Amino acid sequence: MENGHKTGNGVSTAICGTEPVPAEEIDAICAQFGNDKHRMLDILRDVQDRYRCIAPATMDHIAAATGLTRIEVEGVASFYSFLSLTPKGRITIRLCDDIVDRFSGLSEVACAFEEVLGVKVGETSNDGAFSLEYTPCIGMCDQAPAAMVNDIVLTKLTPETARSAAQALKAGQRPEQLISERFEALTPTERALHMVDNNIRHAGEVLLAPVPEDAGLAKAATITPTQIISAIEESGLRGCGGAGFTTGRKWRFAASERAEKHFVICNADEGEPGTFKDRVLLTERPHLLIEGMTIAARAVGAREGILYLRGEYVYLRELLQQVLEERRRRGLLGTDILGVKGFDFDIRLQLGAGAYICGEEGALISSCEGLPGEPKTRPPFPVNRGYLGYPTVVNNVETFCHAARILDKGAAWFNAMGLEGSHGTKLFSVCGDCLNPGIYELPYGHTVWELLAMVGGEDAAAVQVGGPSGTMIARDSFHRKLTFDDLATGGAIIVFNGECNVLEIVEYYMSFFVHESCGYCTPCRVGNVFLQKAIQKFRKGLANPEDIDYLKDLSGTIIETSRCGLGMTSPNPVLTTLKNFPLVYSAVIKPSKDGIRDTFDIQSAIDGARKIAKRRSYIFDKDFTQ
Amino acid sequence: MSELPKARIATASLAGCFGCHMAILDIDERLIDLMQLVDVDRSPLTDKKRFTQRCDIGIIEGGCCNEENVHVLHDFRRNCDVLIALGQCAIMGGLPAMRNAIMHSDAPLRECLDEAYITGKYIRNTTHNVPNDPALPLLLDEVYPCSQVVEIDYQIPGCAPSGDIIFDTLSKLLTGKFRGFERDMIKFD
Questions:
Q1: Residue A38 burial by Cβ neighbours in a 10 Å radius (0-12, 13-18, 19+)
Q2: Structural domain span for residue B26
Q3: Within the 523-552 window of chain A, which residues sit less than 8 Å (CB to CB) from chain B?
Q4: Mean pLDDT (chain A, rounded)
Q5: Chain B environment of A591 (Cβ under 8 Å)
Q6: Does the structure show a pLDDT above 50 at B1?
Q7: Residues of A in contact with B110 (CB under 8 A)
Q8: Fold of A422-500
Q9: Residue from B55, B82, B103, B138 whose CB has the most chain A CBs within 10 Å, to mutate
């Protein structure tokens, strides 16, 4: 499979919207992807990279080339935040607007960029050179504040480094030159490591210790698919993306489904704020990941696979493509893998375009199919009817890596680690107020206290386990264990010290969910906005005691009536803090005076009419003429 | 009927169509029973414009679209022990709140007034002006349900609520027996 990609820099700089984009160039891009409507996201990403926007006329061309209607193309183009219907600057700077970045001086960094580039966040400069914008967590919380400059990542920004980067860009340097003067000469892995530190603080036995090359795959090639699935089942491996479904069962379901084709998809759309473990695996263990996917392919009988990489990790694209190429060359991908007749498998790299929801497996499949990243109704489950209607296994990066190791070392070895129900090791990505943010590979079962002692965060006042959709706990719960049965996490551990305002964190997380809701279910689309507004009321000190019940009721409704995991977990920041930080809420509520609501401000409500009528209010304004 | 002291009730119509007040009259001959239990203080039904004394129950029709509505609602909240929002406009803003939908505009209120008095296709307004008599209360930026302006104790749904639900709710509240609505009373299809 071929992705055939050119980076946006140095190619055409036609400013779309003002100059027409030549139709033949668009046709060429579509042809490069076989005019396949299922590759719509790739086509649009390419157009966006080259012309910095997807103009109306361009959408007509793409629709004609791929046999879709214009509105279908626009539906995709308008869904993803990295695609734009209006022209973006030739250099687009996306500042990571996570709460960890905010607490690490994001606003000063943003000011530095604004000052030098002469544009405000959210604007594009008049000459079309620069766009400056905020984007949710880009997976660099251990080195915040961070930013993306086109496909380049800048980390540990300070106002000074931000200013000099902006000045260099303004002077005409290419973004790559910010990383290294000899960027072109570096290998893809060196490039990635120059941009981003992986901060591996504790290597466990399974993933981050030295790993023999393709030992698991060699083993898998000698045994039957059923034996592979049995080994995974016996190991007790559960999905590492957050939901924790038993991996062996998932594979068994997909394998037992009779179909013309099966698919294996790797979910590398690590969007949960505070999670960056997959980033480290993709950089440090890419071969192990592909090995795991190949084993899964043998287990379920898949000949095609997709590696869905989140748009924010575009800096890893070359690295991964090189790994895929190399494995094809060495006969580890392609036909008759390891000389086994009929063991055929290849992988296509699918890049996302900035949508948190695509980490949900149904939405991820929609996105791979070239559709807007909207979740699908379940059942049917992906293992029964997934990608293009075929049985599909979707697993997290870490899960595939574990699977490869289990085949090599045996199910019993893996099963012996951790606790009952939570076997093996887990990567924890720790960030926030601690001395050593980074990656810790630990067996399941450590308490939060133990982890905090390791990371140097013993003075934490609150820990967010599992990102915003997880649980926020206070010191009285730090004895709890990091397992599926107690504190489940996809890996994110965010440490907050006593200076952080819990309600500010909650409001930020609600604004994140408001931004990332796909909008399909009304309770999620509208309810999260109401939750955020209610939290704002608390922060302003305008909340009444009954607002606590309102928060609980509304959260319950959103959870019960949403179709996918986003809506089912988005009220968690509110619910878990209500439970674990009740004093924070009770400290700011007060009963309203004579039943009159303080939240209703009559002065601002009549201000517009006062200006239109050009007179004072005879009821609410004093008469100063007397 | 027992010989309890009579309760005092007051009613007002804010940004509503007076339909809910008409619905109060739909209680029909049971009004006679109800009048055994209550005296009506400030209300369009008695044409009393001010509270003569503190009331047990205030009934509000309509939401708040202008400053006078807010003023009246504040007055009711301060003078009534229990405040009831009667009908959809009081509860949710209702039909008048359609103007809240003008949201993608820099000056939604101006746009609304222009459309209503000047540019609207079917307008016959020979003055070509938006009315601006000093006696006219200023409009609010949007139409607010009563519960956003003051605390509301009970809401009686319907557009307009039936005479039955009003009678049932009031008589139960007055005798301390109200435990929520019967399902058939709030089933509208």
A1: middle
A2: 7-100+140-185
A3: 544
A4: 93
A5: none
A6: no
A7: 608, 612
A8: Ubiquitin-like (UB roll) (3.10.20)
A9: B138
Architecture of domain A202-416: 3-Layer(aba) Sandwich (3.40)
Residue A595 CA from chain centroid, whole number: 44
Question: Does residue A620 sit at the B interface (CB-CB below 8 Å)?
Answer: yes
Q: Is the Cβ of A600 closer than 8 Å to some Cβ of chain B? A: yes
Q: Compute CA A550 distance to the chain's CA centroid, rounded to the nearest angstrom.
A: 30
CA B70 to chain centre: 11
Q: Is residue B56 part of a domain?
A: yes
> Which residue in A600, A610, A617 is closest to B148 by CB distance?
A600
Q: From the options 2.30.130.30, 2.60.40.10, 3.30.450.200, 1.20.1440.230, give the CATH code of A507-626.
A: 1.20.1440.230
Predicted structure pTM score: 0.86
Of A605, A607, A619, the CB nearest to B68: A619
A160 and chain B in contact, CB less than 8 A: no
ipTM value for the complex? 0.91
Q: How far apart are CA A325 and CA A323, in angstroms?
A: 5
Say if residue B131 is preceded by a cis peptide, omega within 30 of 0.
no
Domain ranges of chain A: 91-197, 202-416, 422-500, 507-626
How confident is the model over B81-96, as pLDDT tens digits? 999 999 999 999 999 9
The answer to whether A464 touches A490, Cβ cutoff 8 Å, is no
Q: Does A608 touch chain B (CB under 8 A)?
A: yes
DSSP per-residue codes, B92-140: H-TGGGGGGG--SSSSHHHHHHHIIIII-TT---TT-S----TTSPPEE
Residue A305: phi and psi, rounded to 5, are -140, 160
Q: Which of A118, A54, A130 is nearest to A85 (CA)?
A: A54
Mean pLDDT, residues A462-477:
95
User: Using 50, 70 and 90 to split pLDDT, how confident is the model at A19?
Assistant: low
Distance from CA of A542 to the nearest CA of B (A): 12
> What mean pLDDT comes out for the span B146-153?
95
Angle, vertex CA A196, rays to CA A11 and CA A153, nearest 5: 35
Query: What CATH number does the domain located at A91-197 have?
Result: 3.40.30.10
Between chain A and chain B, how many beta carbons pairs sit less than 8 Å apart?
Answer: 73
* Residue A27 φ/ψ region, left for φ over 0, alpha for ψ in the -120 to 50 degree band, beta for the rest: alpha
Using the Cβ of B144 and the Cβ atoms of chain A, whether some distance falls under 8 Å is answered with yes
Angle ∠(A247,A250,A254) on CA atoms, nearest 5 = 140
Closest chain B residue by Cα to residue A608: B141
CA distances from A152 to A113, A132, A278 (A): 16, 14, 18
The tally of domains found in chain B comes to: 1
